[in-house]
Design goal:
alpha/beta, 7-stranded parallel sheet, 3-stranded antiparallel sheet, 12 strands, globular
């Protein structure tokens, strides 16, 4: 077991894949998940019950749970139906999200419900919301368009390319525990995950950004295996770091981890939405680039959990 404290920033499927691999070898993992999600089951419950978004938190609980397989399947079970359906319809909802709503109402507090969920499902490590209040995001594009809500950014409901992302409120409250975890970390990992709808909504939180800059931890950014054509079109490693620098005032990462195996073709049904991140990049003195085979060869939109974790551990 690796005796290092690792803090993972993000919360989406990329973070899930990351912690699935790390959990077997690292004894101290904390996930700090974005609270900007407002799409699908999560968005419907957020609007219907006025609670913070549960989806990414629940997915991470499942990934880090030490409960038996049947219990973990309960968390991720999704009722048949449309995820973006009617607000009050059961169809499309993930059972774990509904459990978070129920526990919040039983305990009268979302934070207490999250802690109880982690106890029930025997989660190894910690899963914390990035902010103590729900936040939303909006962006401006290259054609001067304003795009509101994470769902619209995530689904590409805009024209042009994203130029600037904003938080609302601009300075949301952050729990002291989140700050303490970041400052005391040995390694801080951002990504993998969608740059504008998952990663930057965490990095843009002033309290979190300040803690990252203050922390003496190594700081690693895991670049996506594939670019979303409407969100990060043709982005290379340097473009990701340029976006981070533009939003955070400086580059906050010591190193960047990228996939260098593009031999597996992206499935035809996804080619209109995704393309592999280009392998070429410009060397930069402010950060090192680690290029390794970390792709899931059977589904090359995602990382392979085991290969990703092994590469990170080898480079700590």
């Amino acid at each position: 077991m690796v005796n290092k404290k690792i803090v993972c920033l993000g919360g989406g499927i990329g973070t899930v894949n990351l912690v699935k691999g790390l959990i077997e070898s690292v004894g101290d993992i904390t996930v700090v998940a974005s609270m900007a999600d407002d799409g699908g089951s999560t968005g419907r419950l957020r609007r219907l019950f006025s609670i913070p978004p549960p989806g990414d938190l629940v997915s991470c609980i499942a990934a880090m749970s030490q409960a038996d397989g049947a219990m973990k399947k309960l968390l991720t079970y999704r009722f048949e139906g449309e995820r973006y359906g009617e607000e009050e319809a059961l169809g499309g909802h993930k059972l774990g999200n509904l459990m978070m709503v129920a526990l919040t109402q039983i305990m009268g507090d979302f934070g207490k419900a999250l802690s109880q969920m982690q106890k029930i499902f025997k989660t190894r490590g910690k899963i914390l919301p990035a902010t103590a209040e729900s936040v939303s995001i909006w962006a401006t594009t290259s054609v001067g368009e304003r795009v509101d809500r994470e769902e619209n950014i995530d689904l590409g409901r805009f024209t042009g390319t994203i130029e600037k992302l904003h938080l609302k409120p601009e300075n949301p409250k952050v729990a002291k525990e989140v700050i303490d975890e970041i400052i005391s970390a040995d390694l801080i990992i951002a990504g993998p995950g969608d740059l504008y709808s998952t990663i930057l909504p965490v990095l843009l939180v002033p309290g979190i950004l300040g803690a990252i800059k203050k922390s003496k931890a190594k700081k690693l950014y895991v670049i996506n295996v594939a670019n979303k054509l409407f969100e990060t079109p043709n982005y290379k490693v340097n473009d990701y770091i340029k976006a981070v620098t533009n939003h955070c005032g400086e580059n906050i990462f010591d190193s960047v981890l990228m996939n260098n195996n593009t031999s597996s073709a992206i499935p035809d049904k996804y080619k209109r939405q995704y393309e592999s991140v280009p392998l070429n990049y410009e060397k930069n003195k402010s950060y090192a680039v680690i290029a390794k085979d970390i792709v899931n060869s059977e589904f090359p939109l995602y990382h392979d959990s085991v290969k990703l974790a092994r590469t990170i551990i080898d480079n700590i």
